[in-house]
């Protein structure tokens, strides 16, 4: 075991830190510690510009191969980048779905033409993506998709109709990837297709959904005879499920260490408040703060183990626990924040419903245990894939 | 960065696993725990002579293998998994560490060599009936008499204290308080005035003793570390030991999970294996989470311990890493053992099934060297004061 980074990696770290120090200034200064879950609605235009700034510096998609506009960075370097990015307080990435999900999926499963068409925009920070998986009837049971796709021979295009829901950032996005049913007689995970679609077209309507935080970062997306070019289906019609699942594997990865830095920033804020208002001397609060610190430390060790075992990008079965652990930890942190604040926790920054960062965090973390697979679904996955316990019985009507 | 085992470490683990599966069977554990001594001398001899485990992290100049703390932890995990009944923990994780950290050259030469040869068992005595694990636990009194020292006091919860041949003893000067005035001694258990009594325990797989020192005369050559100033060294030994016991706890967590999986896949109720019920699956999933998370904490702490012994970059993190590991692993193991008992239903409540042995060991190792709350308070002090 060796926990330190090589001299070369440390040089890379210095390079990242210096670039951020020199560039996260001026008009971007106000973006520090902004954006990201719970704050996604803030400064959308400025943050889009920041994506492009990052791209100019060569700091988008750094883990992608060079031929696709990436930097070909090692896992260690990606870890370091994410750490420094969060340490500098650089803003939540509006481009993360394209960079972390759409791009890797295209690199793994897309045609050469699709790669040429879509990857440069993602790498340049000019094309933002959102994820069209969930539907009113298809949440945890992701395969229960009703959105339909049929190929119109005359037009030479796929025609998509149906509805997606809870689509994060759809209102800011240029593209959406959609799973839809290509075979109307199929059910469950058979007969699906994976489509790449332009948002700005007549058949697509986006309606914001107000969240419990009072803000909207997710949406309903309606498809009414929306069009998708013939060569914008990834893989073959009917193969969509495998691609959708492949993509979910990209959701867990190197960004975790950056996420932890963000968590660390939140915990530090809570500690500062506790010291200032005297709660730091309350024995129960002391125990809970220590517990949060311990959990965060171990989260870091977990991901180091996870990344060290990953030579081929595949995940070992131990990695299955990761989402359940961080989501539950973060939810607890939200409660800790409120309990440390005491009655002050209730007082809003201003009316009618403007939350402070910690209030927004506290409310938003309730979604961490829901999106990306609920805690219950995570436990099913751990039990079935990690421990080989029997699968849930399927009810066939 | 490479946070995973080397090929050599994997070999150590697999060898330990295979050996312990053989020698520390349910029957072997039960016969050892029925004795006052608490272990089978023949198995201990095989461990020392065939396996050479007691020498694993002792420097080569004293006849040890000179490997690192990570290698030690790899084995401890397996010992915890198979509930090995032996004086390994007391001799290696308490006494050897104390000798390495605080012993004089002569003491190391003499005792570490004997430990490596397998001719000496040893332990650490520092706790008193007040039930504390920090410096206030040290209540034994040492006075000087010419060049010699005289020791008085009653020590409790001394692992293998009734069988160990060498006692590493912490005592304080009269009137001293807290971390001040503490000295460490290496004392032959047969020294006149040392009275040792076995304390029967709920967890029978690990034996404890009470030791009374009644005007025990000790020469200055038996002093370890610096007179009156040995707390930092003793503290370091305790941190290293906390990491060692956390490693055992990880092994135990894994084993109760494995036993539970095996049982729930076989036990049929309502027409199907109970492993198919979500209420059962979700408990098992939480058990796996706790085990893996505990493992990450221990492996990291082991790396830190290794650097703390060799003066590496992470040495300063020892106290924090030890408390992180001991607090998480203590609660994790106990919860896992409790869930295992629950999921075994009625049979889990029997003497015949091994689950209760783990349930009891989980609690005894949770309490030993400070429970989760104690270690969290350590962390809180680092963060908040
Ligand atoms: C903030 C946020 C952002 C999101 N962003 C996106 C996005 O960008 N794109 C997208 O496609 N989706 C997105 N989602 C949707 C998210 O993936 C779903 O909400 C999630 O998969 C849960 O599905 P559901 O809401 O339909 O709940 P349901 O599936 O209806 O679940 C309701 C409850 O039942 C439990 N349950 C369901 N099935 C089982 C089972 N088999 N065993 C045990 N318990 C079960 C669940 O755990 C949950 O507690 C987002 C959600 C949120 C909250």
Automatic annotation (TrEMBL), chain A:
Residues 130-225 form the Acyl-CoA oxidase/dehydrogenase middle domain. GO terms for molecular function: flavin adenine dinucleotide binding; oxidoreductase activity, acting on the CH-CH group of donors. Residues 238-386 form the Acyl-CoA dehydrogenase/oxidase C-terminal domain. It holds the Pfam family Acyl-CoA_dh_1. The keyword Flavoprotein applies. Keywords: FAD, Flavoprotein, Oxidoreductase. Its cofactor is FAD. One of its GO terms (cellular component) is plasma membrane. Residues 7-125 form the Acyl-CoA dehydrogenase/oxidase N-terminal domain. Belongs to the acyl-CoA dehydrogenase family. This is Acyl-CoA dehydrogenase.
TrEMBL record, chain B:
Residues 6-118 form the Acyl-CoA dehydrogenase/oxidase N-terminal domain. It comes from the Bacteria. Keywords: FAD, Flavoprotein, Oxidoreductase. CDD domains: ACAD (cd00567). One of its GO terms (molecular function) is acyl-CoA dehydrogenase activity. The keyword Oxidoreductase applies. InterPro entries: Acyl-CoA_Oxase/DH_mid-dom, Acyl-CoA_Oxase/DH_mid-dom_sf, AcylCo_DH-like_C, AcylCo_DH/oxidase_C, AcylCoA_DH/ox_N, AcylCoA_DH/ox_N_sf, AcylCoA_DH/oxidase_NM_dom_sf. It holds the Pfam family Acyl-CoA_dh_1. Residues 124-216 form the Acyl-CoA oxidase/dehydrogenase middle domain. Its cofactor is FAD. Residues 231-381 form the Acyl-CoA dehydrogenase/oxidase C-terminal domain. Signal peptide: none annotated. PANTHER family: ACYL-COA DEHYDROGENASE (PTHR43884), ACYL-COA DEHYDROGENASE FADE28 (PTHR43884:SF20). Belongs to the acyl-CoA dehydrogenase family. This is Acyl-CoA dehydrogenase. The lineage of its organism: Bacteria, Pseudomonadati, Pseudomonadota, Gammaproteobacteria, Alteromonadales.
């Amino acid at each position: 075991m060796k926990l330190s980074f090589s001299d070369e990696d440390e040089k890379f770290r210095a390079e990242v830190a210096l670039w951020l120090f020199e560039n996260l200034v001026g008009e971007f200064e106000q973006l520090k510690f902004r954006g990201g879950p719970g704050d996604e609605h803030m400064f959308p235009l400025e943050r889009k510009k920041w994506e492009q700034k990052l791209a100019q510096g060569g700091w988008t998609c750094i883990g992608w191969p060079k031929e696709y506009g990436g930097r070909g960075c090692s896992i260690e370097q990606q870890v370091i980048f994410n750490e420094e990015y969060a340490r500098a307080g650089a803003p939540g990435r509006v481009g993360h779905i394209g960079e972390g999900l759409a791009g890797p999926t295209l690199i793994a499963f897309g045609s050469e033409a699709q790669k040429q068409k879509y990857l440069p925009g993602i790498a340049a920070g000019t094309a933002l993506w959102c994820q069209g998986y969930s539907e009113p009837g298809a949440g945890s049971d992701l395969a229960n998709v009703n959105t339909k796709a049929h190929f119109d021979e005359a037009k030479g295009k796929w025609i998509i109709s149906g509805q997606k829901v809870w689509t994060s950032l759809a209102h800011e996005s240029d593209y959406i990837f959609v799973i839809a049913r290509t075979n109307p007689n199929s059910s469950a995970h058979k007969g699906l297709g994976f489509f790449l679609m332009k948002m700005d077209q007549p058949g697509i309507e986006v309606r914001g959904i107000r969240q419990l935080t009072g803000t909207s970062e997710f949406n309903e997306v309606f498809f009414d005879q929306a069009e998708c070019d013939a060569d914008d289906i990834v893989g073959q019609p009917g193969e969509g499920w495998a691609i959708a699942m492949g993509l979910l594997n990209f959701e867990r990865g190197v960004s975790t260490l950056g996420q932890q830095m963000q968590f660390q920033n939140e915990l530090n804020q809570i500690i500062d408040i506790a010291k200032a208002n005297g709660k730091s001397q309350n024995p129960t609060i002391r125990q809970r703060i220590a517990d949060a610190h311990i959990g965060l430390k171990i989260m870091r060790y977990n991901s180091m183990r996870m990344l060290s075992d990953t030579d081929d990008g595949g995940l070992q079965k131990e990695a299955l626990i990761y989402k359940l652990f961080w989501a539950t930890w973060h939810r607890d942190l939200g409660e800790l924040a409120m309990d440390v604040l005491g009655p002050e926790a209730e007082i809003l920054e201003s009316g009618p419903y403007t939350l402070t960062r910690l209030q927004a965090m506290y409310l938003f973390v309730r979604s961490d245990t829901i999106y990306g697979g609920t805690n219950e679904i995570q436990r099913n996955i751990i039990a079935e894939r990690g421990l080989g316990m029997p699968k849930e019985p399927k009810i066939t009507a | 960065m490479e946070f995973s085992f080397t090929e050599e470490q994997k070999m150590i683990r697999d060898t330990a696993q295979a050996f312990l599966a053989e020698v520390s069977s349910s029957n072997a554990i039960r016969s050892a725990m029925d004795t006052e001594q608490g272990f089978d001398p023949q198995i201990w001899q095989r461990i020392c002579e065939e396996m050479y485990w007691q020498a694993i992290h002792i420097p080569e100049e004293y006849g040890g293998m000179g490997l690192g703390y990570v290698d030690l932890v790899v084995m401890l995990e397996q010992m915890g998994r198979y509930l090995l009944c032996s004086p390994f923990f007391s001799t290696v994780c308490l006494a050897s560490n104390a000798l390495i950290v605080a012993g004089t050259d002569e003491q190391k030469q003499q005792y570490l060599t004997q430990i490596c040869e397998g001719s000496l068992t040893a332990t650490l005595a520092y706790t008193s009936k007040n039930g504390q694990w920090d410096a206030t636990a040290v209540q034994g009194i040492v006075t000087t008499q010419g060049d010699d020292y005289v020791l008085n006091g009653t020590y409790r919860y001394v692992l293998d204290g009734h069988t160990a041949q060498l006692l590493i003893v912490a005592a304080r000067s009269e009137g001293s308080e807290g971390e001040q005035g503490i000295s460490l001694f290496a004392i032959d258990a047969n020294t006149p005035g040392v009275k040792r009594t076995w304390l029967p325990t709920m967890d029978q797989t690990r034996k404890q003793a009470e030791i009374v020192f009644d005007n025990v005369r000790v020469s200055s050559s038996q002093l370890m570390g610096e007179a009156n100033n040995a707390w930092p060294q003793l503290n370091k030994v305790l941190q290293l030991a906390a990491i060692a016991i956390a490693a055992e706890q990880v092994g135990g967590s894994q084993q109760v999970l494995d036993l539970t999986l095996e049982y729930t896949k076989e036990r049929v109720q309502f027409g199907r294996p109970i492993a198919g019920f979500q209420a059962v699956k979700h408990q098992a999933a939480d058990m796996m989470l706790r085990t893996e998370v505990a493992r990450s904490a221990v492996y990291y702490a082991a790396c830190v311990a290794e650097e703390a012994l060799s003066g590496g970059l992470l040495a300063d993190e020892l106290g924090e890493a030890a408390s992180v590991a001991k607090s998480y692993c203590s609660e994790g193991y106990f919860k896992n053992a409790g869930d295992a008992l629950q999921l075994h239903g009625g049979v889990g409540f029997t003497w015949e099934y091994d689950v209760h042995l783990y349930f009891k060991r989980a609690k005894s190792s949770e309490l030993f060297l400070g429970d989760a709350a104690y270690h969290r308070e350590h962390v809180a002090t680092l963060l908040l004061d």
